[in-house]
Amino acid sequence: MPCTDAGVERIAAEARRALDLCNACRFCDGYCAVFRVLRSRRTVSAADLAFLSNLCHNCRSCYHACQYAPPHAFDLNLPKSLALVRQQSYRDHVWPVCVRGRPPGSGWGFVAGVTAASVALVALPVLLSVPPELLFGRQAGPGAFYRLVPWGAIAGVAGAVLLWSLLAIGLGVASFWRGMGPAPAGVALLPALRDALSDAASLRNLGGGGAGCNDRDERFSQARRRFHHALFYGVMLCFAATVVATVYDHVLGWQAPYPLLSLPVLLGGLGGGGMVVGTAGLALLKRRADPAPLAPGLTGADCALLGLLFLVAASGLALLALRETAAMGPLLLAHLGLVLGWFATLPYSKFLHAPFRFAALLRAAMERRGLDSLSRPGRGRGPTEWGG
Ligand code: SF4
Ligand code: SF4
């Protein structure tokens, strides 16, 4: 994929051409937030491109509905154009500044390399310091995990890597927020934040021009939305399990591993199951998807993140199932290393689409509320059909 200046310019010019055509045509106005935002613009600026490309959920409805899509001479492919601009927006705003312009996690290689290094970072000190009969022996009872890897080492290394990644994501999103241009003035943030949270939690923009996405052809399907929900809420449940386990350990003094019917195990088991189902389902849909509305070269980044999340969840579930056997030691090292790899790649992998898309949803909600207030009687003229 081109990331030279000329290549970037070509991608932007093609996306602008597509959006200008859409703005004149307006057939897809009701499909998603992209078209609703487009309606309020006469021309599409560079800031608008960054905004609209991250607002697009790539449901592909507008491609299948478009009378100007190939083989028409206009050769219009809006989902593909927006996907290419979206990928460029990650490069433009990734932090630290010295890696800007480079493809953040654009394929398997980066995520696989960092994850392999993370597994080695966790496993090597343990292999060198823990006697083999302990590491490969059967462990049970409170504190069994920490006999192999001390809690301080787990929390210290994982915490430091996670803090770095959250800082990088925060600064990247702040740069992206500025890159979308000035936010609408005089709009209350909290109600807009509530709207954006609702849009994100329901994946409303995956509805497209019917009931769901067009993964393979003109038929609508809710499969992508369901698998995405399974993955998202699976990650949330695993996070909740970690928080509860931390409270158990450090407030109540109850050390892991916990019984099967305890809250951390139930939350983690459900969350891990959701992540396995979600990642496997999304990967399968990607494999079967019609390649025409997809941007070439981006599937690797998607699959790298899905593959890593699948391994994180599967290793966690395997650890849960086999924790009282001799496999517990190797599984614990593998799971901790994979989680560390995930944390380390957060700001440089496809994961970045989540905070960027949320920022775009928030900006869209602010615009929507700003225009709504303008269209109220006595507040001047504005589009009256903006909502929805
Ligand atoms: S995608 Fe095609 S049909 Fe839809 S608004 Fe754009 S030009 Fe019109
Ligand atoms: S979200 Fe769907 S309908 Fe909207 S621009 Fe993207 S692909 Fe087209």
UniProtKB/TrEMBL annotation:
<feature type="transmembrane region" description="Helical">
    <location>
        <begin position="148"/>
        <end position="174"/>
    </location>
</feature>
<keyword id="KW-0812">Transmembrane</keyword>
<feature type="transmembrane region" description="Helical">
    <location>
        <begin position="297"/>
        <end position="322"/>
    </location>
</feature>
<dbReference type="InterPro" id="IPR036197">
    <property type="entry name" value="NarG-like_sf"/>
</dbReference>
<feature type="transmembrane region" description="Helical">
    <location>
        <begin position="108"/>
        <end position="128"/>
    </location>
</feature>
<feature type="transmembrane region" description="Helical">
    <location>
        <begin position="230"/>
        <end position="248"/>
    </location>
</feature>
<protein>
    <submittedName>
        <fullName>Tricarballylate utilization 4Fe-4S protein TcuB</fullName>
    </submittedName>
</protein>
<dbReference type="InterPro" id="IPR012830">
    <property type="entry name" value="Citrate_utilization_prot_B"/>
</dbReference>
<keyword id="KW-1133">Transmembrane helix</keyword>
<feature type="transmembrane region" description="Helical">
    <location>
        <begin position="328"/>
        <end position="348"/>
    </location>
</feature>
<feature type="transmembrane region" description="Helical">
    <location>
        <begin position="260"/>
        <end position="285"/>
    </location>
</feature>
<keyword id="KW-0472">Membrane</keyword>
